[in-house]
Design goal:
Strand content of chain A: 5-15%
Structural class of chain A: alpha/beta
Order of helices and strands of chain A: EHEHEHEHEHHEHEHEHHHH
CATH architecture of chain A: Alpha-Beta Barrel
Number of domains of chain A: 1
Strand order of the largest sheet of chain A: 2-1-8-7-6-5-4-3
Largest interface: C-D, 36 and 37 residues
Shape of chain A: globular
Number of strands of chain A: 8
Number of helices of chain A: 12
Oligomer: homotetramer
Largest sheet of chain A: 8 strands, parallel
Chain lengths: 294, 294, 294, 294
């Protein structure tokens, strides 16, 4: 059995590629996942924001999780995204992921109507009571539409299997709060690419990122420089990749990663509408930023 | 055949009620809809934000639209909400609504990944090419997560059957811009309850609101005072209902309307998780605000 | 003796013009003030934001107030701006204005360090105890850096001679709150030009504005249309002037009014650095917007 | 002659203390300054935000700068704050500081009317042409009201003696941009206390802070841990002081430092109205946070 804090280092998001008819392309997903695994990352996180989770129907989500676990085959742990607007569907997918073999699930409280803190707590608590693997609570107001306060995140950690927090607000003060309130052993993760250096400096245990689809060596080397307390090297590595990290966030990860794979000579498949490919100007900019990197 | 600007006055949102098992309760929906029709409103808008559209699956959405149209039975026009994260599902539901007899569809560009202006335009354009009834473009960053600029809204009006704009930002300057850029005949609608007076003063053709579930007489009287250019009366009517309008928006329309119906002695059904009923303190506040109101 | 709510209608801001050496030009100020008085406005408000109050030293402020009162000569009431970062200087200028004959003073709680509500209350209370003319509390976070909550504004009205509120946030909901909390007789004023129509519709007693330097007839006619409850005419008048109102706010009132006077063939003097004149592109845009107006 | 990048490490802000009549207390300022110098900080920065620069008149500003330089007596460099709303007064104080012996001046573009980028550039350029000591451009929208974009900061560095940038937005991405755009040798400084660790990790050359009035040893030790690339130690030191750093920023530095000095048994003098001392609850919280800290 895996421990509650099994994730550490670089946790990579695969994209969910589509075929020309905008149907999920599982064989392509499998090969892109294998490529990530071999790049040296420490864990896989399918069906995150990069994996366009909310644009998939139930059957598609199940196919992606199944494929990721089959391909990982125990070589590295899998953190399955199971977020949904309704509590009932979140429970459904969390149970599916557990049965399929995921090491943990990641849940962002998606919102249409702004949720109260009590509603969010009850949402996590209901899911937690239906599964026995750990839950990573994921805060990302820019995509999910809900900004969980540090106080609410702290409260969520009272639920026994909510053991990890991923902060994607890009505000390093949130991490300071978590670390201070919860002690040096708390497992908090950074989900904001441009904050990679600051978050590691603040004590983040891992970095959840789509960047290893394009620059896995730079990502893992940054992690190791931090582990070795080699700050000048970490700075050097971070500033090398920082322009690219900012670009892929600014343009939207599914669009930017798909384009970057294409520039690397790897098929990244199609996007599902309304998402559209990067335009020519952005493609040239991305090409320029990737030149000479990893 | 109905004209492109068939909607005027008070356009009422029914809620989508659930049973104790959190399944959509169509008989209750039908009776709440009949109650709204008889209250004197000018149009019905099922599956708006108040109707918790994004929390329903495809079959549920179809059942609600069908029930609304059967109950309206031509007595007043029906504006069907058909918004979806993907373009394919939006087209699907728009076609369903047209076939079922809706006078128009309302579409908010829901977002997980922030959409570019081109993606939003293409989203509307694709839907528009698949139906022949008018489209109301609906801007509500607080729920949909996308804030369409006035310039983008103007661009959307180039699509032949995008003929109406609903602004729910609560910023009256957006309406000034629309009116100025598009002339006095543009059909713009207000979707922000606390802005009802200011929006009518700015020339809004209608007010899309869930309030008629609770105070239909005050809502329609405000509209008529404006039509009669009786500003003192409009002010008086507006300030009577303004505290309640603010409350139902602050607490979330599905929660607040369900609670208000209960206080009126009308069954409002159950909510679907993660949404939870108002707590006792809020119930007492709502009761106080509704006292003596129509 | 004047009543506490002596101000009603159009309250005009004169600019403070400078000579080529960036010294205050009192003779030019006097002639611009006379021009405003003859244009039919209902009151004068020297040393507001338009009058670049914070860029003047003590002697310059006194000279401007004195000149305004001498020129008004009782023909219309004068509301003198006396705001200052420190309480001591605010008291000083408020006493000066009272002795010089101002009907009331206007005070914005300027901030470098964000002030607590208690500090702001004590600031107003200290000034109020040193003078016996009424005080208009002025909320404008965009210039003053402090956003006084509606609750704080309500609290300020407990101070006996704080009898008027000017809201310049551009948020009509603030006015709804003031009117609701304080009754129909509360004297609240609008200081946001693009909100002129909405604020009058909400019941504002007056409009504090620099626009009469350029389009006094349109400004006063809008006020009269509202008083006559002629909403269609008010809409028509508002939409005529709305693009110009937005422009002068967007470009900064001192810059835009000085430029507009020049386009009208009236000497508007020079600005004091760091403020610089509008560039050519903005001048042409302003010329276009003023064509055919007032 | 001093070099353009003479400042490094901990740059300490003294407060400007007042007597019971709210007049500047120069003897107390001198003794508090001596206390700072002996605490081991690397430079002094009188008349920053902590020194309540904008609340002082011209004579008071000159007295403070003179006293700081006399007391420093060449033992450490002095960075004099000379910011003012008008360009003319900024030039005046910058020339005074140079003549008095300041190593450099710090200028924040204070704003009442929002300044254009050209106006800000011209403001700095005019000052720069009147002095020959280096200028630190200081960005702090929370106090100054102007947010200089990274692009504008880069442009300011084209002015020969603008050689240092102090960023106080608390957004580490601004520092990443500066470092990336300007190379590893750019002298950028952190002015946001809660960002101390992240800014040093990002490569900031120094930390401008009022904290050494209370915890100088922790501040300087953090700097040395970073210089030694001892990240675990830096984290440990940062998390020890982080709650206090957040508190003094949240409560306002002049108020919080004056209170903290009092708790340390050192006379911190009085504040000038409208600023008021911390209330009892905040005092007890501050006492708790300072317990056991250096």
């Amino acid at each position: 059995m895996q421990s509650a804090t099994t994730f550490e280092g670089i946790i990579a998001y695969p994209i969910t590629p589509f075929d020309a008819a905008q149907q999920v392309n599982i064989p392509l997903f499998t090969s892109l996942t294998e490529r990530l695994i071999q790049s040296g990352v420490h864990a896989l996180a399918p069906l995150g924001s990069t994996g366009v989770l909310p644009y998939l129907n139930d059957a598609e989500k199940e196919a992606v999780i199944t494929a990721a676990l089959q391909q990982a085959a125990g070589r590295l742990p899998v953190l399955a995204g199971v977020s949904n607007l309704t509590t009932e569907r979140t429970v459904y997918h969390a149970k599916f992921a557990e049965k399929a073999g995921a090491a943990a699930v990641m849940i962002i409280p998606m919102s249409y109507w702004k949720l109260t803190d009590d509603e969010i707590f009850q949402h996590y608590d209901t899911v937690a009571r239906h599964i026995s693997i750990p839950i990573m609570a994921y805060n990302n107001p820019a995509t999910g539409g809900v900004d969980m306060s540090p106080a609410l995140l702290k409260r969520l950690l009272q639920i026994p299997n909510v053991t990890m927090i991923k902060e994607s607000t890009g505000d390093v003060q949130r991490m300071h709060y978590l670390r201070r309130e919860l002690g040096a052993d708390v497992a908090f993760y950074n989900g904001s690419n441009p904050l990679a250096l600051a978050a590691f400096a603040a004590g983040a245990k891992g970095w959840c990122t789509a960047a290893p689809n394009l620059i896995p060596a730079l990502n893992t080397q940054l992690y190791h420089a931090i582990r070795n307390s080699d700050l000048p090297k970490a700075q050097h590595l971070f500033y090398q990749q920082q322009p690219l990290l900012q670009f892929i966030v600014a343009k939207g990860l599914p669009r930017a990663i798909q384009a970057g794979l294409q520039l690397r000579g790897t098929d990244g498949g199609f996007l599902r509408s309304p998402l559209q490919p990067l335009d020519d100007k952005d493609m040239r900019e991305l090409e320029r930023l990737m030149e000479g990197l990893g």
